[in-house]
Amino acid sequence: MEKSKKVIIAGAGLVGSLLAIALKKRGHEVLVFEKRPDLRLESLSAGKSINLILTAKGIRTIVALGLWREVQTILSPVIGRMMHNVRGEQAFQPYGKNPSECNFSVGRADLNKLLLSEAQKAGVKIHFESSLTAIDFENKKISTTNNEMISYDLIFGTDGSGSIVRKELIKSMGEHADYKVEPLGTDYKELLMPALPNGDYAMDSKSLHIWPRGKHMLMALPNLDGSFTMTLYMPVTWFKDFEDKNKFKTYFEDNYPDTIALMPNYLEDYYCRQQGFLGIVRMKPWVYQDQLALLGDAAHAIVPFFGQGMNSGFLDIYTLLTLMDKYPDDYYKIFSEYDKEQKKNGDAIADLSLDNFVEMCERVGDEKFLFRKKVEMKIENAFPEKYRSRYGMITYTLIAYYLAKEAGVIQDQILDQVIGEVTSLEEIDLNLAEKLIDEKLIPWFHQNQISVERYLP
Ligand SMILES: Cc1cc2nc3c(=O)[nH]c(=O)nc-3n(C[C@H](O)[C@H](O)[C@H](O)COP(=O)(O)OP(=O)(O)OC[C@H]3O[C@@H](n4cnc5c(N)ncnc54)[C@H](O)[C@@H]3O)c2cc1C
Fold first, then answer.
1. What is the CATH number for 26?
2. CA-CA-CA-CA torsion sign (32, 36, 38, 44)
């Protein structure tokens, strides 16, 4: 039986509130500080309605904490990408081998509200509108904006990409801390496509819709109420240019003509919503002695193009809990092992997400790329036990991010060889594909004890 500790969590976002539930269920005394007011008492402010894709690694943590039944009630299934070109033509690319291989779209605020309620039900104390401002590591005390000094045994920083806990950690580690913010140079704004007057969705509701336009794009995910949250990604400098309403109107009409009739308020939405920053935070280490660990965006803010920011934060929680089982009460060991394992994963998913940004912006409209995807799907369907695309490994399996990244390099070599000069699917030599998989991929899977099996809750 593990000893009960006095735990402080800074930040009651998605990761902080789920972590609070987990630690309370293990018998710890859990006190959470959250800078913002209680979400459940607020009407949603403009620009904060983001919806997210929840996938295998995130789902596993929710299941492990006994919350899957509750969370399921706020999810919408998404089975593939619908690409929209400038002529308004659509092309569907399924995510998986069949519609059961779907992703789930969930409103960030809906999920956060649910987790806050579950945390309080479990007995977690949450102080809203109260921020952590400083940490005294020597005396194991934190200060808050309410001028309190509170002692702790363990402290967790889940206070997002601008983390104060991380700043305090960096301060205490001096030159031993390695910290970098890499702005993407592309930011985003949220718009809304409302439900039709009869309540129906205005577009296919089982798809993630993408309008790829080179360095900029529009994306849409369905909400439960028949609307779509539309996210417009553009180079940072364009936001300044588009302070001129006519310029923005012309840009939008030229690039997304098929959406105009379905988004009567797109101009108002654009001008009343905030510009969201996108970038990568890289930090080393994520832990301090046997006292502190960073989780979620506080440790590894990434760009959202693999839909894994929250999922990787939930994976942080799962890894931490596994280590708490393995090394009961030994927080030096728990935190150092957590840092070793999850830092690799954090770096890998940061890199993969950047790569997917290029894919979603540029390559999804490229004929060669689309053909490569079709070939990969043909191979995946022919050898489901042996081959799963990198996207599939990240999204549907429990394979660690860094291993999925390494496997992706081997798979690229296989695809290069199988495709060669071939230009039609019928000409693809599946015997060659299997031979290469057996020679190059399977031994590597065995060596790393990897199973490509899909995780199902
Ligand atoms: C456009 C967009 C789309 C995305 N899509 C996806 C997706 O499809 N799938 C996915 O998995 N992820 C996605 N993400 C990423 C995901 O939103 C984040 O990874 C996730 O919200 C991180 O959760 P968190 O709890 O670590 O941080 P946050 O959600 O940022 O929560 C941090 C909390 O800490 C509080 N706080 C801050 N400072 C303090 C302080 N000093 N004291 C106390 N409290 C404090 C904040 O108020 C906040 O509530 C997307 C992100 C963006 C921007």
1. 3.50.50.60
2. negative
* Burial letters 147-171, b for 16+ CB under 10 A, else e: eeebebbbbbbbbbbebbbbbbbee
Per-residue pLDDT averaged across 395-410, rounded?
96
Output the CA 160–ligand 1 centroid distance in Å.
5
99 pLDDT tier (thresholds 50, 70, 90): confident
Q: Which atom of ligand 1 is nearest to the CA of 163?
A: 38
The verdict on the CB of residue 35 being under 6 Å from ligand 1 is yes
CA of 310 to the centre of ligand 1 (A): 7
Last residue of a domain, one of 335, 357, 379: 357
291, 337: one domain? yes
For position 364, what pLDDT does the model report?
Answer: 63
Q: Supply the DSSP symbol for 276.
A: B
Pairing status of strand 80-84 against strand 90-94? antiparallel
pLDDT of residue 46: 41
Domain termination residue (choose one: 322, 337, 357)? 357
| pLDDT reported for residue 44 | 55
- Which residues, in sequence order, are CB contacts of 118 under 8 Å at separation 6+? 17, 21, 67, 70
